[in-house]
Amino acid sequence: MQAGKQMLCSIGFVAVAVMMNMSILSAQSAIDEVHVQPRAQSGKPEVPGALAQGATAIIRKSVELVLVPVTVMDESNRIITGLARENFQLYEGKHAQPIKHFWKEDTPVSVGIVLDISGSMDTKIERARDAVAAMLTASNPQDEFFLMTFADRPTLVQDFTPNVDDIQGQLFFTKPKGCTSLIDAIVMAISHMRSARYQRKALVIISDGGDNRSRYTEKEVKSLIKEADVLVYSIGVFDTEFRTMEERLGPELLATISGLTGASAYALDNPKHLPAVAEHIANELRNQYILGYSPEEPRRDGKWRKIKVKLALPRGLQALRVQARSGYYGPSQ
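^ that's the sequence the OP posted. Answer follows.
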C-alpha cells in the first residue's frame, strides 16, 4: 500500500542535483563542543554600533559592510569555539579581504521549522516530533519560531512565536499523508521570513525524500536562496533503497540547498538519530563566528560575488571544517 502511494506521487518531477559535502551522522558520532583557548583579548566583541543590538549573522547586500556567519567543526561534527580573528582568512573572489569586525555571541534567531508530513513519513513522524522538541529546548530562550508542514502543499500551522509550547502543541495534529512539495515549502518559508523579528534567520527542514509535487523548480528555489539572508539547515532521513528517481535525488537536493547558504545538511538512515541532530543544529546557531569586511573594490553591478573562508591554525592541530555562505549579490545602485 505504501509503495503504491509512493508511485502515485512520482509524477512529473525531475531534479538535477549537484552533490555537495554532506554531514553523515552515525550512532558513534560525537556532536558536542570543543573549545580552543585564544590569546587574551578585550572583554567586548567588536560590533559595529548599528549592529550591536542582537542583529548579527546576516550578509547585507545593500551596504558596504558584508557580514559572514561561520561555523567551525571537527571531523566528529563537534563545534569548535574559542577561535580568534587571526585564525580566519576571508576572500571575495580571488582577493583577500581584511576582517574589520569579528565577534561571537549567542544572539536571538528567527527560526522556521519546515516539517515533512507526506505519507512516507508515517513511520518516522514520532521521532521527527521529538527532533523539533529537542531543538526548541536547546535554542536560545529569546529565539522565535514558526512551524510549516508540507505534503501535497505547504501549510503554515503556527506563525512566529517565542513560546515553544505553541509549536509543540501544533505537532500533535501532524498526520502524515500525501505527496512531497518540498521546494514549494522552502519558497513559502523564505517568503514568510520577511516578517521575522530578528536579522539572524534560519530554516530547519526535516524530510525523508525528494520532491514530487512542487510547482516551483530546483533552479528557481536555488536562485531565491542565493538572494535571501537565510541559513537553510536540513535533516534527511532516507531509506536504504530508493523506489523512485525523486527519492534517489532527495539527499543531493537537500545538500545542495543547504550548501548554498553555508548551513549543515545531515543524511540519516535511522530516525532515532533525529533528536540528537536537531539539538546539534540549535547549538550550531548559538556558536557561530561573525566576520565583517568592506569589499576593497566595491562595485554596484548587482552581480553574484563568491566568498571563501579559510582557517589559519597553528601546526599540529587536528583538521577542522569551516562552513560559510558561498557568496552574495552586490548592490545594483
